[in-house]
UniProtKB/TrEMBL annotation:
Transmembrane segments: none
Lineage per the UniProt record: Archaea, Methanobacteriati, Methanobacteriota, Stenosarchaea group, Halobacteria
UniProt xrefs under Pfam families: HalX, Response_reg
GO biological process, one term: phosphorelay signal transduction system
Species name: Halosimplex carlsbadense 2-9-1
Identification of the protein by name: HoxA-like transcriptional regulator
Response regulatory domain span: 8-117
Length: 193
């Protein structure tokens, strides 16, 4: 998702009234797609979808099965299970990003979608940061200080790394120095693995 595009939310819900309610709540802020079954949901799913709101209990292909197929396809979307099923230990093996128990309210749905979109943007920023830091470290290990200081592309790279550190630091709650920042990022990547 880029900053100029309207985020796409796919609602996969077998109860038409519930799906339409979610659509009404979200349509002013997002491009909303709707699917009435797991199979329809998978057919609607493509690289443009940013967030999937997925009912867990549907006839035919269940939400659990749809979620597994979404993850198998390695699409870059976030999935919120929106369900009347109370969570149990089986959720530990599931690859969802949020779990909402019905009934839900408009504000709760908006906050969940917004949080998932922010998390996607953060993940993209973190990936860019790691890539640029790796390039910076490689150049610093092989080039002299004078060579680095004279190279405009390297200086732009350093500026972008500094910008990303500032943005990520703000997201992580205001880490004050580079060592704390790097330690926090390493801790996050260890958790993600």
């Amino acid at each position: 998702m880029t900053g100029s595009e309207t985020p796409v939310v796919l609602i996969v819900e077998d109860e038409p009234d519930v799906a339409e309610t979610y659509n009404l709540w979200l349509a002013d802020d997002y491009e909303v797609r709707m699917a009435g079954s797991g199979d329809e949901g998978l057919a609607e799913l493509d690289d443009e979808v940013d967030v999937v709101l997925l009912d867990r209990m549907m006839p035919g292909l269940s939400g659990d099965e749809v979620l597994a197929r979404i993850r198998e396809r390695e699409l870059d979307c976030r999935v919120a299970m929106v369900t009347a099923v109370e969570p149990d230990f089986d959720i530990l093996e599931m690859g969802f990003d949020a779990y909402l128990c019905k009934p839900i309210r408009s504000q709760q749905l908006h906050e969940t979608v917004e949080n998932l979109l922010e998390r996607s943007a953060y993940d993209d920023m973190l990936q860019e940061y790691y890539s640029l830091v790796e390039k910076q470290a490689t150049l610093e290990a092989t080039k002299s200080s004078a060579e680095l200081a004279d190279n405009g592309e390297y200086l732009e790279l350093r500026e972008r790394v500094d910008e990303l550190e500032e943005d990520l630091s703000g997201t992580l709650g205001g880490i004050d120095d580079d060592e704390d920042f790097i330690a926090t990022l390493r801790g996050l990547s260890d958790v993600e693995e």
